[in-house]
Structure formats: C-alpha cells, structure tokens
Amino acid sequence: MADWTAKLRLAAASRTRTLRSLRGACVTAVASIAAFAASALAADQAPRAFRAPGDCFQPLDRTNALTLTRENDQPKLEEIASRCASEAQQRPQRGMIFAYFYAGWANVQLGAGPLQPPRDDAFSIDSADSLDERQLHDATTLLDISARMASISGADQATLTAQRRARLELARAHRLLGLRPNDQDHFDQAERELNSLSRDGGGDLQNSIAFERAMLVIDRRRGDVDTDDTRLQSVLQDLSVFTNIDPRPGDQYIVRRGPMQLARLAVYLGDRALNRQPVTFENTQLALGDFRYAVGAYGVLSELGSSVDPVQAANTRVRMGLIDLRMARVLVPGQSQETTYGCSPEADSFSINEANRAFREALALNPRSSDAQWGLGCTLMARNIINGAVEQFRLAVRGLDEPGERALPRSEYYLGLARALAASPDQWDGQDGAIAYMQRAADSEPDVGRKAAIYLEIADIYRRNERWADERLSLQRSLEARQSARAYLQLGELLYTRPELDGSAVGARTNLNAAVQIAGPHQAEAYYYLSKVEQRLSTVEQRAQHGRASVDFATQAVRLESNNAAYRQQACLTRIIFSRTHDQSGQVVCTANAADDPQNPDAYPVALFYEGLFWLREAYLTSGGHRSNNWGLAILAFERGASAQGGREVMFDDHNNDMDRIPLGRLLDYGRWFALHCAGLDAAVQQQPGSHAVDREREDFKQLYDLRKCWAD
What we know:
64% helix; 2 strands; mainly alpha
C-alpha cells in the first residue's frame, strides 16, 4: 500500500494545480478499494438515467452513462465531468474508481470536440482544430488515477471492466492530444497503453482497440507524402469491422466515427489504386475492394441515422463502376492499353454488369450525376446498345458545366459520345458526328499524351472511312503533341500503302525509322514495313544496297516476333529476291510450318510455295550433289503445297510486283516445272500436259523471282 501511495504522489507532482486536490483524495481512498472489491456486486439492474452525484460511484453497467454523446448530451456530460470529479475529492468511499473514470471519460467526450464531417483534404477524421486541450489533459489525469486504483489483487469483475475502459480512454485522450503540432509524444504514450491493454486482455473492447490502433497509423502519417500504402491497407482491414457494427456498443465514440473513418480511408486508398500506373489486374482488384468497404460503411451510417451526403455516396458508387469498367478491359487479353475503360463489346461481361448496377445505384442517389450517366453509356456501348449509349453520353456532356466535381477528365465525356457515334456508320462526320466530338476532346485535353492518343483515334476513324489525306493529317497532329511508336508506324505504313500521298518512299522510310528507335510492341511491325519500303526502292535504284537493308530489316522483325507468319514470310521472300538465302537463318525463316497461322487454311500452302522458291535459290547458289539435293527439296515443297491446297481456289499476291493476282496452284505448278527442268527431268513435265500452258505467266514468274537460269555462271 505504501508503494501505491508513493506512485500516486509521484504522479500527482506532475499534474496541474486544478486537479492537485483530486490526486490527494485518491491516496486516501486506496485503503477502501480492497474492501469494496472483495464484496459482491448487487444484482444486475437495467441501465437507468445517470444521476449525479449518486451514480458516480456505480459500476459502468448500472446506468446509461456510456450511451451519452457530445452531440446529444453535452450538458449532461459537463455535469458528470464536474460532479464526479468533485465527489471523488470530497467523499472518498467505495467505488471511487468509477467516479474518477466517469469524470475522465466525460472529459474525453467533451475534449474530442463535435463530430463533424472533416475537410475534404483531411486525411484523418479527427482534427486538432476541434479539440479542447484542457479537458483532454484533465481526462488523462483522471483516467490514469482510475486505471491505477483498479490494479489490485482480488479486484472484482466490475472493477476490472472499469479499469480496461479507463486504459482505453486514456490511450484515446493521448492520441487526440498528439494531433497537435509538435506534440506527438502523446502518440507514443497512446501506443504503450494500447499494447499493455492488449497484453492483459481487452475483453469486449476489441473493436475499440482496433479503431485506436488504426487511428494512430493514420494520424501519424501526416499528409499524402508516403507512397507505400501497405500499412494503410492493413489499417483498412482492421477498420472493416465497421461495415457490420452493433449500433449499441458500450463505446459510443466509435459508433459513427468508425464507419466514417472507414469510408474516408477506403475512398482515399481506392483512388490511389485507381490512379496507379500501369493499369494492372492487382491494382484494379485492390481499388474495387477498397470502394466496397466504403459502400458498406455508408450503409452502416445510413442505418444509424447519420446524415450521409447522397452526392458523396453516389460518387463512391461511380468510382466502383469505373473500377468495374477498368476490370472489364484488364480481364480481356489484347485490349488496347491506351483505353482505360472497357466500353467495347469485347470487354468482360460480368464486370460490365457489375458496373451497370453501380452506375444505376449512383443515379438513384444523384439523378444529375454526369459521371454516372457517362458510365451507364459506357456499359450500354459494351452491350452493343449503341442508341442507348449515345443518349446517356449526350446527357453526360450536357451536364458538364453544372457545379460539382467530375471523376473523369472533361475530354473523356466527349470521347464517350464520339466513340458511340463512330460505332454508327452514318454518324462519324459532321457537326454532331464523332470527329467533331473527338476534336473537342483534343481541344479540352491539357495532357499532351492523351491529346496525342485522341488524334490517333481520329486517324483510325478516317482510315475506316478511307479518308487517307485526313488520316495523314491527324497522325501528324498526334506526333506534334507527343512522339510515339504507334503514330510513326501508322504514318509510315500509310505512306507506304498509299504512295500517292508522298510521291516517293522517303516519307514512309523516315517515319518507320523513327518508329524502330522506340522499343515496344510496335517495333517489330515497323521493321517489317521498313523491309517492304527498301524492297520497293530496290526496283528503282541501288538494288544491292536496298536489298541488303530489306533482308536485314525483315530479319530483325522476325527476331522480335519469331511466331509472326507474315514477318517470316517477308524475311524469306527478301532472301529469295536478293539471293541471300545462303545464311544461317535463311532455312529457318523459309521452312513452312503448318502451325504458323492455324486460322488461315491458305497460309500453309503459301508458305510451302516460298519454301520451294528458297530451295530453288539455294540450288542456284550451290553445285554438285548439294545442287541436286536442293532441287529435290524444291520439288517436294511444291508438291506438298499443291496437296495442302487441295481443291480450294487460292489467289496469290505477295505485294511484291505488278503481276495480276493468279491462282496459287498455277504458281506451284510453275515452281515444280522449273525445278524438274533444272534437274533434267523434262520428260516428267511433259507427262503432265497443261500444267505449264500459260507461257506469259510462266515467264513473268521466272523474271520476278530471277529464275531465268538454273545455276550461276
């Protein structure tokens, strides 16, 4: 007992003069605690209205004291804080631990300030601006005394319950005091109290302890400067209990604060995950889970009678819908990475349905939400309900200038309407057409990267409608906004396939050369078209130089994408034309593979035709037994090609010449005839009259692939 008295006196020395007499009274009352603790509690009574001062000495479950809140019962709390502290000082008696607790607890309720929606930029639900520091300091003194008085052997259950609650409230008071600038030592004291309480067993205060731990992490963060959200995600899990909380717990402090803090943190983390780049399945799934917590928290607040802003609740559902739209794109392989949301019919249908539900719920809460109208238009477009999508997108665009924040950039609303209009064949042009809204999107977009992407979309619309000059202009505007491999590639390909736009291959070569300098998914295709450009230039000047370049570029395309049948075919064709089959990779790219393009039944016989040409070229460059062997391989390839073609009519065009498109079967016959002729087997050819009847085509074939002679001189 002497040790207890010394500790209490030491604690009293550090307190303010206002409460000095209360600490002295504690020492006097300690002697009576043991006797009170040893006695049995009175029979349980239904909680009744708290009456001071008599009830100051009653256990916590005898009255309605712990259901009082500052919002509804401030006068009563002020009476409890004053009368119970005074009674503990003036009338030392059994149950004084409860009097100190009630006085300290009431001071925490009053010192925490009114529960008001915090500022939008506030990270924590609590703010130093609303605190009453004097009352919180008084609370720490009173609660510390109450907690220490109960630390005796043989304490009954009511005393232990009061002690646990006193330690919780003490930790809470220290945390709130730590919100003040340059006074964060209180956070450490709060953490020590919570750790001690957890070690000793928190009883039915687990939700309250979880809330205080979560708030310590949040309050210590001090702004949006930490990019690692791992701890905050853990905190969100701790706070998730508030999506299904009993509205009548003993700790009224957390009843509304818990769900509200959960909602704020969930929206904060959801937004961060939603804006994280690059877009991944993991980030999208994380954001979706975060906003689900927010929706659950808003539901609890509504059930508790809290005033939930319908616009804010609608915005949360809009965000959920946007995440579902993003998931709809992420889950479909091959979707464009330049489009954030899955509004196309290829998008994941389950995610689209979830998004549709979220946007409809948002519109039920806020019928004027442009965000929800845009999102609903997107889901309708994904379902191929184009007219409905156009209607929703138009509503969203009309509401752009109304007050309120927008979840999307302004350009995205124009783009939604433009894409819906572009999906309709007769609405792509004109003042109210897709191009016009695309241009408005580009004009309203401050980000040069997005502006460049919009001009690429405009170019695609022009391409579909064969407006080649307009496509070229849009691609140039995209490159003026931001250089990109895709724009360079598309412009180079356009100038190659439409030489009338440029008059030469110089423009195509310049843009394709720029594209291959940018590593990424477009590099291989740029090398492929560069090979074609050099192949074309070889017909007018410096055949050997352009021929080497054409082969090298085609080879580079194959190295980047070895499974692309078109790239392998180009690499093989250029080797044949420019007599460069005799290298290490020639046989690799020219060997036909039935699995190269399984969706195209004509691809394999065409590949066998090129394989036959390869061996003809190899025979031309070799001698002796190797030459005869190569002729044999050529004959075999041509015959296998004819067999693979079967009875189908396949028209052949390798885009390498001005020859009319002719049947592949006839070309296979020409190749076989030439190989048999060179091998000295003309008799075998004569046994099949008519297989080489079209002399002009046969001569053109020999001229094109430089097969006028069987071997080099």
